[in-house]
Specification:
- The structure is a single chain.
- The radius of gyration is 21 Å and the shape is globular.
- It contains 15 helices and 14 strands.
- The strands form five sheets. The chain has a five-stranded mixed beta sheet. A three-stranded antiparallel beta sheet has the order 5-14-11. The protein has a two-stranded antiparallel sheet with strand order 1-10.
- The chain is 47% helix and 11% strand.
């Protein structure tokens, strides 16, 4: 077990917080823990709209479970640089995330059987082959960029090839769009990426509606005849395929990036996995807890409700922090400490309740494959000297890039 220190202490600044600011990014965990220490929700102002930020495990759990009072239908996702100077959008863009039951339940009944752990494990041989190919190149070179040379291209193959049955060089563009939607350097880059990916998925859905593929998730979405008593529109089918193409890319890679960075900077924790590879599933869960990427997802209140000591009226915006909840000291002792032997593994990296992540089984399978192969092929690796490792913190928390060095023997 080793202490994970990511930011220096910061002087409390009161209840309001600017989540898009450089100060918040640079002092992320002290700011999150400061917010958790108060029974009153902190407030971020988006445009002229107050957004109440829930960071404590108990509060986030309560919100995510209670879809009747905390609705998803006015939009869940906060995209990169999304409306920083304007009020939050009051519309859904991703299905079934931006639906409440019963329509949301109908979509999940369709998709859940296609995303079980058993079905996801059929991709293990292909994913393992890709992992080995990327690692072999990096090991031979004596080191590599973890995000650009390994995790992002690996996800490109794992998600686009296996889940979406895409082929060809065009998927390189898809990968860039999926990344820029969340962490594009400018608001224009994020918006352009969303438009580009939406356009590409529009074309994919139209093509699969005309020429469906057997045992194909996108074709299944294209062929479904009825949801909540009505035939889905083309826009609704696109809105289902859209999150399938980006969720596993940003979230899984970000969690793996944090986990690999931790192991590169904490040799005792790496040595423990090397000595006992049976601990890899526990390491996956601890990585999901410590490096969950979601800083904020949105809900909208449907009636007056109280969270802690904060009273909210109907129609107010509540932003939930999954990574904050997963490092809440009231729930997880020593929350910033890596500990694969934790008895409480009930993190909410994948959310909980009716909107629990559809891709959780695929993410766990992929993370397990990556860590198993790293432990076997790279029993010793370290963070390369002379680099500054930067993070993005809104709307997701993760490492931009880092380089590891792999010794030759």
């Amino acid at each position: 077990m080793t202490e994970q220190v990511e930011a220096p202490a910061v002087t409390p600044t009161g209840c309001p917080v600017d989540l898009w600011s450089g100060e918040f990014n640079e002092n992320f965990w002290p700011e999150i823990n400061r917010m958790q220490a108060s029974d009153t929700l902190s407030v971020h102002t988006q445009g002229d709209t107050p957004c109440h930020v829930a960071t404590r495990y108990e509060d986030v759990f309560k919100i995510l479970r209670d879809w009747k009072r905390f609705s998803s239908e006015f939009g869940v996702a906060i995209l990169g640089h999304d409306n920083r100077a304007e009020p939050p959008k009051n519309e859904g863009r991703f299905l079934p995330e931006d639906l409440d039951p019963p329509a949301q339940t109908d979509w999940r009944k369709l998709l859940n059987p296609e995303l079980t752990e058993e079905k996801m494990r059929r991709f293990v041989p292909a994913i393992t082959e890709e992992i080995d190919a990327f690692l072999d190149i990096g090991i031979a070179a004596g080191g590599f960029r973890v995000m650009e040379d390994f995790l992002r291209p690996l996800q490109l193959r794992a998600v686009f090839s296996n889940l979406l049955n895409l082929e060809g060089d065009s998927i390189d563009d898809w990968m860039q769009w999926a990344h820029d939607i969340f962490v594009g350097e400018t608001a224009e880059a994020s918006e352009n990426a969303f438009v580009s990916l939406y356009t590409a998925i529009d074309a994919l859905v139209r093509e699969r509606m005309e020429h469906p593929i057997d045992d194909d998730l996108v074709s299944l979405v294209c062929r479904i005849e009825e949801i909540d008593g009505q035939a889905p529109t083309l826009a609704e089918r696109i809105a289902v395929v859209l999150p399938l193409s980006i969720a596993g890319l940003e979230s899984t890679g970000t969690v793996l990036g944090g986990t690999i960075h931790h192991l590169a900077t904490h040799p005792d924790d790496l040595a423990e996995l090397v000595a006992d590879p049976a601990l890899v599933p526990d390491a996956v869960e601890e990585g999901l807890r410590m490096f969950a990427n979601v800083t904020v997802l949105q809900r909208t209140t449907t009636c007056p409700v109280t969270i802690g000591s904060t009273s909210l009226d109907a129609g107010e915006k509540v932003w939930t922090s999954y990574n904050g909840a997963n490092r809440d000291p009231a729930r997880f002792p020593d929350p910033h400490t890596w500990n694969v032997h934790r008895k409480d593994k009930n993190h909410i990296a994948f959310s909980i309740g009716p909107h629990r992540c559809l891709g959780s089984n695929f993410a766990r399978v992929m993370m397990t494959c990556v860590l198993e192969r790293i432990v076997e092929k790279m029993p010793r690796f370290t963070l390369a000297d002379g680099q500054v490792v930067g993070h993005h913190s809104m709307p997701t928390r993760g490492i931009h890039e880092f380089v590891v060095t792999v010794p030759s023997n």
